[in-house]
Amino acid sequence: MTSASPAPSGSRPGVRRPGEPALTALGLGAPAADPADASPHTFPDGGTWRTEIPSVEGPEALSVVLKESARLDVPVHRISQGSGIWMLSDAEIIEMAGGCAERGIELCLFTGPRGSWDTGASFRTDSGGAGPRARGHDALAGCVEDALRASELGVKCLLVADEGVLWTLHRLRAQGALPADTTFKVSALIGPVNPASYAVHEQLGADSVNIPSDLTLAHFTEIRRVSAAPMDLYIEAPDDLGGYVRMYEAAELIRRGAPLYLKFGLSRAPGIYPYGAQLRDAALDTARERVRRGRLVLDLLARHGADGNMSPLGSRLPGTLRRFPTP
């Protein structure tokens, strides 16, 4: 797939909605898209969307993803992992970073301990307590340790699930303790659900922000009126994030949410976090199927004439974003 020149904001030449000709002939056509709903933002390369394969938990799963993406011609901008940096050896991280770098793919690894797996009981209550955030100084320190270690081993994108961890890592980046081209991705586990909270994550240092897959189209437009930070969105969400499948909305989600990472998740699949060899078959099977799901989304976009404006492969930086002043 190749990237096309971006269309003007709100304009979608050659794009059709699902079922539009047949429904229009029956007098059931939808109203024209409102240009005011369209995002005015793009990635710095002019593209409006990129792709991500999530839950790639180690070198073996990465090898499966790279092989399948080549076989099915699925362009990949980013590959992310969910179990955590501390669940990988140095050799495994180096292998993953090298394999992605050879193909111009950004590798994103999850930082440190989080509340869903530590000794705190509040996460297991009906209220969910503090959720996956880093509990106490030691968990914060573990996240920082993970970030510094991964960076030294060649990882340039770090996934965070805590606002304090995000701000701390952003300050380390500003001070030069982390490379200036390190990017921070906010986890779907704490994804913001309104424009104000989205803007706060951007200013705390986020370079892309996972939003829940159940936000409405109007919510996308509301966020884009206050922030240009790239969105990460599960087009198909895992069951523990709702299991939503929004393939048919992909073109409209891009129009309203650009710049947007299309994440090819997988519903009705076993959980594999934290990953180990006991989950090998499930991890490899689901990695393979995530790539196939990506092919289905790309085919759908192509059928509707909405597959243009993809960022060039190898693109990873988010462009200039707004930040709080660092002390």
Would you kindly provide a written description of the structure presented here, covering whatever features stand out?
With 327 residues, the chain is an alpha/beta fold. It has 9 helices and 8 strands. The chain has helices spanning 20-25, 59-71, 90-102, 136-152, 163-175, 195-204, 217-224, 250-257, 280-303, and strands at 49-53, 78-80, 106-110, 157-160, 183-186, 208-210, 231-236, 260-264. An 8-stranded parallel β-barrel has the order 1-2-3-4-5-6-7-8, surrounded by 6 helices. Helix 3 links the parallel strand 2 and strand 3 (106-110). It is globular.
Nutshell version of this structure?
The protein is α/β, with parallel strands linked by helices and 327 residues long. The protein has helices spanning 20-25, 59-71, 90-102, 136-152, 163-175, 195-204, 217-224, 250-257, 280-303, and strands spanning 49-53, 78-80, 106-110, 157-160, 183-186, 208-210, 231-236, 260-264.
